[in-house]
Amino acid sequence: METGNRKIKRYIGIGLTALAMVAVFAAAAFAAGGGEEATKPMDWGWRILNSGIIIAVLVWVWIKFGKPALLGRIAKIEASLEEAGKAREEALAKLSAVEAKLRNKDAELKNILDVAKANGEKEKEMLVKEAEKMVADIAVSTKELIDAELVKAKEAIRREAALKAVELAEKMIRENVKKEDQTRMLREYLEKVGR
Asked: Alpha-carbon dihedral of residues 149, 154, 155, 157, nearest 10 degrees?
């Protein structure tokens, strides 16, 4: 790639060559214009001098104003190209960093999902075990409660049966025991107590 000064010299050379060609064609066109007046060598000299002055002024204007403008424009373009190259490199670096992060995020997401599934399975197993333990505890406490209630119910039935038996016995005794039987029972009881 050419450097900035070489490019400028090349452009100046191309510009001067173009000006020289324009001057030569202008002189040829002027000469072909028919002139009877142009037969003197002095006239040709003035015309060449005139063309030389015009060419010199054009070259001076080109060097004075065109060259700095061209150099400034070239410098701006080169700076823009450099900035664009740097921006492209930075963008590519950022893109590769983002792509790497995305690849890492995919792996991280997969790891997170795997961990979440594993934790979910562990939690499920723990909840099932807890539920089974609670069912077993409830079954044991329900059996104990039923047994306790059964004992209470049996006791209540025994008491009621005993009360009914006493009532029935009392009723039977009242109906069947007479005055003589009462006296005899009282005597037997006193004899037993007296011994």
From this structure: 120
